[in-house]
Amino acid sequence: MTHLRLGLIGDNIGASRAPRFHMLAGKQNGISVTYDRLVPQVMERDFDSLFDHVMAAGYRGINITYPYKERAATRVRIDDPGVRALGAVNTVLFDGEAPRGFNTDHSGFISAWSKVWGNVNPGTTLVIGAGGVGRAISFAIATLGAREIRLADTDLPRANRLAKALTEAFPALDVRVGANAAALAADAQGLVNATPVGMTGHPGTPLPPPAMRGALWAFDAVYTPINTQFLTDATSAGLNTLSGFELFIGQAVDAWNLFSERPIDEARLRADLAAEEIT
């Protein structure tokens, strides 16, 4: 393998660092990598048309981000029953007759949590946003041992679909659903932003600072910028925080392993990315 053609399908991805990550990973392994930003609206295609295009165009694989992860799950073969249950994919391989789907958000979050907080139980956790990344994080939180998850989303049917999937996969799990994140935050140990609010182009925070008081930890899936308003408010309220950058690294490492089946020096890659930020 001397060349990989990869890409990312999503909206508002101009600031994504995924292209640099995979090109640096390729450089470590002597592999030439092209990694395209694929925005359906810019390319004047809907998601399905664009997916068909990349499937036929010689791509080894693609990543999927907001808001297409659930749609992507309907276009691929999913071998992992856990990923089938959570119903969203963020990584697709074109390596056979049917494209195969994976969720490295799920595995990447578990890896990031374990590196930072070991085997600590997340406790009762509020997840704001029941879309693709919210589904992956919610399943990961349940896998890590949480006994109660609260789902906040203004799209209540979507939140209820996620609640149903969670309770089917984890029968002992207590799941509460509502539209008001602040109300659901009361007495929660963990707070998760799984919405695009706070990312470049979508400023703000999905949770007012007073609602954070009393929680123990917070995680923001947004990583551009790294220091979101959500995490800044959480730090000010005395919470331990986990940056979306840790999820970015975790999911990208797992995706690279799928794309290339080659090793990666994560510490070196982190240093290379950091050096680019300075220069």
From TrEMBL:
Its EC number is 1.1.1.25. GO terms for molecular function: shikimate 3-dehydrogenase (NADP+) activity. Pathway: Metabolic intermediate biosynthesis; chorismate biosynthesis; chorismate from D-erythrose 4-phosphate and phosphoenolpyruvate: step 4/7. Coiled coil: none annotated. Transmembrane segments: none annotated. The keyword Cell division does not apply. Residues 8-92 form the Shikimate dehydrogenase substrate binding N-terminal domain. It is an enzyme of class 1 (oxidoreductase). InterPro entries: Aminoacid_DH-like_N_sf, NAD(P)-bd_dom_sf, Shikimate_DH-bd_N, Shikimate_DH_fam. It comes from the Bacteria. This is Shikimate dehydrogenase. It comes from Roseinatronobacter alkalisoli.
